Protein 1
Amino acid sequence: MKIQYTSTLIALLFVASVSAQKLSRTEKKIVSTIEKNNSEAIDFLEKVVNINSGTLNAEGVKKVGMVFKDAFDNIGFETKWIEMPAEMNRAGHLFAETTGTKGKKLLLIGHLDTVFEEDSPFQTFEMVNDSMAHAPGGNDMKGGDVIVLYALKALSENGLLENAQIVVAFTGDEESTGKPLSISRKDLIDAAKRSDIALGFETSTGFNYATVARRGASGWAVEVEGKRAHSSGVFSEGTGAGAIFEMSRILHQFYTDVKGEDLLTFNPGVLLGGTFVNFDELTSKGDAFGKTNVVAQKAVVKGGLRFISEEQKERAREKMREIVANNLPKTSASISFTDSYPAMQPTEGNLALLETLNEVSLDLKQGEVLAYDPGRRGAADVSFVAEYVDGLDGLGTMGNNAHTPQETVNLNTIEALTKRTAILIYRLINTK
């Protein structure tokens, strides 16, 4: 059963506090192991942060993947690197797995790539103070990957992974998903189909929140053609409005007529117009040539659309098509859409998982955990598997300014978040 609620209601949603049970003797051993390994975990994070793995740096993404592969091999996981076809210009994915029939079958999701490409000036891990470090991709999301690794390492060192099915999927192109999705997300979806629960380790929004719903993401592009002519004739019957005025009309009507539904947003990210326009899809860079005394004959815009359901996405697309079709004189326009991430809707199963996490957090004396507003989260790989399994996301590290040269990761929270993850996994793989 699907549960729908607005961003206002989600802010009011809470999981009832339950009387905290004491950690078991085994769980106390897990916690102790994580404390012992925490310094090593932070060193490991610094090591992988200092390897550039911008999405288009296929060699760097794979290099980071191999560091994690060795670490998972060392704790008894079967690992494999899944190459992507060369024409996709993506590195591939790391999968690590244990097999068994005990308890819930888990899929743990992370990603190896970052938004910082090889030409970025932001490349290295650097301490800001005794708790914070500037780290490109350290928060989004190599820190989350490290939490997964060191939670599982603690369970392995205590002999607690026997007969459990756990699949770790670290994708190499989350920040810019390879196309077609039928190839780039096939292995992730196949793993979900043989799992019961998916846990995503994207950036945490704090100890007191986890993600039960994420909006989907879709690309859109508008192309406009106008009549090239001397600017003295603009607005005349023979010349018309030109491409840039027509594009302005379209964008303004998107703003006034499509905007308004709760959790629906759309953003024009790049706009070019003039006499001649060139745009490179791969690099998302372009150029335009035009003169003030020439009516523009070409305009293009590329944008993104965020939505909480497929139905909401289709409603928005239909409105956008209607607006694009109603052209100013002597212009024509077309719109196209590209699917990227589906929505992760809030379900009863997701909320039940949140309650389990809440109990773990209370037992660790880390506080109550509530559902985070999906309107404040971007898309993520967990959305691809939401159709097949119950899931939670936002279980990774804490920090600030992700996707910017000021990105930080809070090192003082890694130990506590790793404890939470390890105890959650332990309880799930011991639950029928």
Protein 2
Amino acid sequence: MIGRMTDVSGLSIGILGGTGDQGKGLARRFALAGHRVLIGSRSEQRAQDAAGDIGAGASGGANAAVAAEADIVIVAVPYEGHKALLESLRAELAGKIVVDCVNPLGFDKQGAYALPVEEGSAAQQAAAVLTESRVVAAFHHVSAVLLMDPAVEKVDLDVLVLGDDREATDTVQALAEVIPGVRGVYGGRLRNSHQIEALTANIISVNRRYKAHAGLRITDI
């Protein structure tokens, strides 16, 4: 495995927006891999309910409490509330690896399309807000349906990991690889995260046309 040199065993994982499909799916897979998972939400009760659905290894709480307690924090909230949430959690997230998997997308009759972001991308927006955190972009193209399906033992997917801190990207690559079938692949600096987020619109189009749950594989590595 590409990220196998970094040991992530024992790390607790907080997921802000863990009651949504993507966040809940990631929480389930990390819990199955033996990690302690903390699900965050604006509603503590919703977070606890989501944790109950996942079962052993998961607990729920308010976003601020989860951000403060977890070793690594994944941001999986809707783009509309992305910046405001991170601004409210600067202190709790200081010094931590923060993994942003938010896709700024719009939808109309023609399908999904990428939204412009002043900072360049959602991940760059996170980095601009969280100046004392180590922001990494990853997990943008993971199918929530596959993550939640108990019949799917392995997820056939490469997760592109982008960031400016090599130790942080190595850690997130290794974290991706605790999900059976997944590889973590370094995808460049954080400034290149826009096209990774925007590509999600293309994948949604593929899924709609072919009634699939498509992902990416990188060849020759």
Protein 3
Amino acid sequence: MPYRDSQLADLVDLGARRGASYADARRVEREYEAVSVRDGEVESVTRSGDRGIGFRVLHHGAWGFAATDRTEDMSLRSVVDEAFARAEAAAGTRAAPVALAQVAPQRGEYRTTLLRDPFAVPLTDRIALLRSADANLKGPHAVSRRGSVAAYRTRKHLVTSEGTDVRQEIVESGAGLSVTAVKAGAKPAQRYDSRLVRQAGWEFIDYLDLPGRAARYRDDAEAMLDAPLAAERPTTLVFTPEFLALLVHESCGHPTEADRVLEHEIAFAGTTFMWPTDRGTLRYGSEHVSMTADATVPGGMGTFGWDDDGVPAMRTKLIDRGTFVGYLTSRETAAALDLPVAIGSARAEGWQHFPIVRMVNVSLDPGTQRYDALLRGVDDGLLLEAPASYSLDNKRQNFHFSTQSARVIRNGALEGYARGVSFQSLTPAFWGRCDGVADDWELHGFLSCAKGEPLQLMRVGHGAAHARFRDVPIEVRG
């Protein structure tokens, strides 16, 4: 590692000597392994990895970035030349120079806490687990079954001209299950989840109990084949944490990204409806709704020691008892909005990408009542268990979601299934209907949040508990 230390430091020193007001060098090494089983047979075994260095400079008030997967001196000097050339080209197009919010220099190491390294688990054990889960996905009408497990390792080392020198090793484990059931005269039913991921070792895969989960998914899919259509009317809805994790991601995480506020993302990802003048006044939801961005949550897919600006992991409120109060920021966007750095959210998918504002762990805060008490407050309603299709406008203000599985709630108890359920709403109207959040908070992970040009796929985390929403108009499609 001393060789790598000196390499990054030499790049940063060269950038400073050539006149950069700021420079950083970031080395990233990534490993990935996955096993997939389809209908009881091994479908694929995948192994991949890459490594490289990304180099940034602030010069003449503009960013310049370049990257390489080669480490000889000539390639690294070419990266410096390219970064400065891009900064000079960008300087002529900027309306104002880039400024960075102040952060103290950082030094240290961060490592994921592991009980069992997922890369060390024998391939035979992984396949045996997936075949056991596949056996439980079998049902009288199951026509397609899939299961997978995956492991991810990322090593990062960041050195900056301000004195930051931090190393990180992040390990993540994940699994996916899917079953499709088909019956003559009925609409096909699917039950699946590809968001079973966490920053953890193989112990998380054990915790998931894939065979037990597979049996539940099979039963849901089979039941949905014969389920009657729901009644199309305003309905009390209770959402599982799994469903709410996606709603939080789309309707709070994205519109609070500060680069969308500054319209950096307008050509690709869109803007927002949560503007700086709205902070502290915009009614986002009911008093039961608070949301927090937290890069320190154990096991979160958005957890780290430092972001790619070198900002240490922090937590901040985005929504406080229904009122919009905060943003996800990088050092650049915090300075542009004249905000202190309340949370660092500059993250790059890999060494070849420029860091942009990305979600950390953005979560719905837990409530104080038990889930069964929440259900007892429903005389006639639906429990929506998992999202299916969804769409949103480019401000994240108007959305439409459907569900894979809906359970009927009568007099506080679950009774059978209903199909065809979807709903559409404006974000503040939807969250304004929330009249209770349970205390059974749990964490979910997302593997591929898409943003940026060129496109970057980021892993992020979201926590939620069961929550109840009154009088939500639903649509029913057979």
Protein 4
Amino acid sequence: MAIIKVCGVETEYGIQMLGVPDPNPITASSLLVNAYLSLVSKKVGWDFVDESPMVDARGFTRDFQLAPEVETHLINTVLSNGARYYVDHAHPEYSSPECYTPREALLYDKAGEEVLRRSMEGAARVLGPGQSVVVYKNNSDRKGNSYGCHENYMMDRAVPFGKIVSQVMPFFVTRQIFAGAGKVGTEMAYLPKEQVPFQISQRADFFEEEVGLETTLKRPIVNTRDEPHADAARFRRLHVILGDANMSEYSTFLKVGTTAIVLSMIEDGFLDGLDTTLETPVPSLRAVSYDLTLKRPLPLADGGTATALEVQGMYLEAAKEYAAAGGLASIGDEAEGKEILRLWEEVLSDLEVDPMRLADRLDWVAKYRLVTGYRERHDVAWDDSRLAAIDLQFHDIRKSKSLFYRLGQERLLADDEIEIAVTEPPRRTRAYFRGKCLAKYASNVAAANWDSMIFDLGEDPLRRVPMMDPLRGTADHVDELIEGCDTAAELLRALGS
């Protein structure tokens, strides 16, 4: 039986500093995080003791050092909603708390946008006249650099990793037809500009391998990092790095929801008879991104071909059978699982008839309609710099400036629930314990990470509280306990008993 797909989204934001001579993106990112912390709470540091980015899911540990994922001297903190907010390389990154359902993952991803907006407002108060920091939820600086939007899903350790790779690969290559954020042009230097005037995905250009450990160089479609942030004997965390950062609520919900269902089917052996193996996944990834007709046949390993729509249709049909067999409990909410299936089918159907039907729901379609409309009105070529500017402005998270927010896109969330999620943690995962401890005992929390918290009671030694099961530490488990403990010392005594 598939386990609950506890999930989350990590977003590295693009950043631009205006009106500042020789702007430094690391300084700008640090300014943002510090500005937010000055508004909300005491800074609580991140505990790196359990970080193990060199462990590979294929059964070995790399003995050389990759480019560091996180510079530990940079700002790295935990928020009262259970999220992590920090400077990753030259970008501000918001990692959502552990979420119980795909819709909850969407909610806390959108809460992250609001955290960044408030960070910009805070930074504006300390910058000089005419100076500002602007944040974009995109994936490319158009100078050959890409920054990620990663997803995480809890899986059963007993499922062989090779099985996960083979059965999820075709799905990952093709899901961009509804999860892509859209992009004007390409950054593949060997391609003539006119060959790819617009593409579906912002990230497809930057992937070079099918399977691998790296996340910044030679990026793989399936990442092998084996860092469960939980009991490694029971759980695996599938770290998904190929997705685009989505502005659209529909795109994010479908991206996370369909992936959670596919991974559940893999755990339950429901895809063992489905053979959609692609002959060349990396070229196919780009082929799908470059094909706005969605009709390009992809070569399959068995000698046949299938379009991206057909591959997604095969996964959808399997998922409908899976649901009929009672297999959606692992999504966290069966009604939500059925809603994901309904939207998945609706979107694939509309994409087959005319993608423009989805201009009010999917990022890449909305952006394509926007830039083609501008081209037609002003008679400009695809390589005109104004189209690249429109592309960037689409991802501006300031609602008064963002082109996305001017398009009247369909919503799945209400503003008031996003407002609550900015400060309140999810109730059905261990993020609840982390967030509530931060809210109530911040002065005694020395540091935290995903699977533990360290308390400082003013005397040696520091006290570590392990949280090795993502489904423990929920509101049902600890709400009464935290309510009854006025101090961190009382809480630790109660936990010890």
